[in-house]
Amino acid sequence: MQTSFTLAQLADPDVAEADKILRACVHCGFCTATCPTYVLDGNELDSPRGRIYLIKDMLENDRPAGADVALHIDRCLSCLACMTTCPSGVHYMHLVDHARVHIERTFRRPPSERLLRTILAKLMPYPNRFRLALYAALLGKPFAPLAEVCGLKRLAAMLRLAPWRGPRRTLAPQIFAAIGARKGRVALLAGCVNDLLAPQLNAATISVLTRHGIEVVLPAGAGCCGSLVHHMGRDNEALAQARADIDAWSAMEGLDAIVITASGCGTTVKDYGFMLRTDPAYSQRAAKVASLAKDIAEYLATLPLQPARSASGMVVAYHSACSLQHGQRITRQPKELLGKLGFMVKDVPDGHLCCGSAGTYNILQPSIARRLRERKVGTIERLRPDVIAAGNIGCITQIAAGTELPAVHTVELIDWATGGPCPPRLRGYRPTAAMRPSSAAG
Ligand code: SF4
Ligand code: SF4
After folding, report:
1. What percent of the chain has pLDDT over 70?
2. For residue 431, what pLDDT is reported?
3. How far apart are CA 266 and CA 323, in angstroms?
4. For residue 150, how far is its CA from the centre of ligand 2 (angstroms)?
5. Nearest atom, ligand 2, residue 93 CA
6. Of all atoms in ligand 1, which is nearest to the CA of residue 89?
């Protein structure tokens, strides 16, 4: 694609990067076939190619974003299916991230939209504030249908996604010693939303790692990875959160990896080197942190896991989170780990399509998110699985809101099959042959 940025514009490293990305696009349109928003409605402006044209026009003419551009970029899930499909290697993620920053700085959203975005940005990354919000949501949850009827779709979406129980205590900074001889040392990104909504994920991660000889460190000062605000175009807040995490992890000696259980966060942490490339005080440490970041399945695949139970007979529908399969290109390891431990893993048809979670997307774009969830749940339920597994808390929450099937994190099943406790959502579950003690297990 030809571009016509001026030399003055190209002096800005972000514009220069956007120019490089735009030039790589040959407008073939292959990406449209795998874009969830295009698949739903067939609108070219809600396809990757259409969005690329909108972004090009906005940036080249150096003009404030208009309502039309904001509308179609806001509808993008940042699922990155287009990047997996693109034969020309167009780095859509960096392009849309830059476009979101430009929109955030130049477009005046309606007051209610601004208020909602500010509330999300100021609550969700901060566990103490988010805990209070979850208590309020618990009180309001019964009124979700009423909110829907009154046209308050975003409020209704928030209430539906909130859990039916109060939030648990978050993990304090500490070290979890390896059981037996220490074979490795990792830092765990406990996460913000993750730890409050589903503390069993970190518990399962710590359990399986320490049982296999890995020391797990939760350093003081590490918090939200910045992903939530990054996807809203609030780059200063995202970079501040990234720098705090880099400071915390860089202070730790001898880390083999930074283990992350939320694949959306993993995609962002792996991009820290790019996000902070122009910051001389952080660029090197950011690149180091990015190189250490590992999804939990990616890291567990390097360990000799010992099955303690036979999982034969338990059918797992594996939902491949977009941030894992498209953002980090991790597709094999979670399924291979589950398969080796005896689970019968089934791929979800049209697995490249997003479930509609996408960070705060299911709150900000509830109608599209609901349609994508219904589509995803339909394909999953047709597999008649015993359980749904995914590697991202956002997907688990989104899918669980639309089905009676239990939805768990992959690491919960791995921990269970290697000697850890039964995942809370599977307690009381009685499959015919599943999870009986293995004769091989001592
Ligand atoms: S597939 Fe790649 S090159 Fe083709 S239109 Fe989409 S982004 Fe451009
Ligand atoms: S990131 Fe996903 S929703 Fe956005 S343009 Fe690409 S495929 Fe479509």
Report:
1. 96
2. 53
3. 8
4. 31
5. 1
6. 2
Q: For 168-217, how does the pLDDT look when each residue is reduced to its tens digit (9 = 90+)?
A: 777 889 999 999 999 999 999 987 777 788 889 999 999 999 999 999 99
C-alpha of residue 39 to centroid of ligand 2, in Å = 10
- Cα(94) to centroid(ligand 2), Å: 12
Look at ligand 1, atom 3, and give the residue with the nearest C-alpha.
Answer: 25
- Model confidence at 52: pLDDT above 50: yes
Residue 426 Ramachandran class (φ > 0 left, ψ -120 to 50 alpha, else beta): alpha
Q: State the average pLDDT over residues 69-78.
A: 97
State the DSSP code for 421: P
The alpha carbon of 124 and the centre of ligand 2 are apart by a number of angstroms equal to 24
Pocket of ligand 2 (CB under 6 A): 35-37, 48, 51, 76-82, 92
Residue 257, exposed/middle/buried by CB under 10 A (0-12, 13-18, 19+)? buried
Residue 15 has pLDDT above 50, yes or no: yes
- Rounded to the nearest whole angstrom, what is the distance from the C-alpha of residue 18 to the centroid of ligand 2? 17
C-alpha angle with apex 58: 57 to 60, nearest 5 degrees? 65
- Among all chains, which residue has been given the structure tokens 């993620």? 93
Least confident of 79-88, 174-183, 279-288, 421-430: 421-430
Over 50: is that where the pLDDT of 62 sits? yes
Backbone phi, then psi, for 330, in 5-degree steps? -105, 110
Distance between CA 40 and CA 374 in Å, rounded? 12
Ligand in nearest proximity to the CA of 28 = 1
**Cβ(303)–Cβ(414) below 8 Å:** no
Largest Cα–Cα distance of the chain, in whole Å? 71
- Please name the residue whose Cα sits nearest to atom 8 of ligand 2: 35
Among candidates 158, 172, 19, which has minimal Cα distance to 98?
A: 19
Per-residue model confidence (pLDDT) at position 162? 73
Query: Are the beta carbons of 290 and 410 closer than 8 angstroms?
Result: no
- What is the residue-averaged pLDDT of the chain? 91
Output the ligand 1 site: residues, CB below 6 A. Answer: 25-31, 48-49, 82, 85-86, 88, 90
Q: What is the pTM of this model?
A: 0.91
Identify the pLDDT of residue 197.
Answer: 80
439 token code pair: 């004769």
- Assign 403 to helix, strand or coil: coil
Share of the chain above pLDDT 90, in %: 78
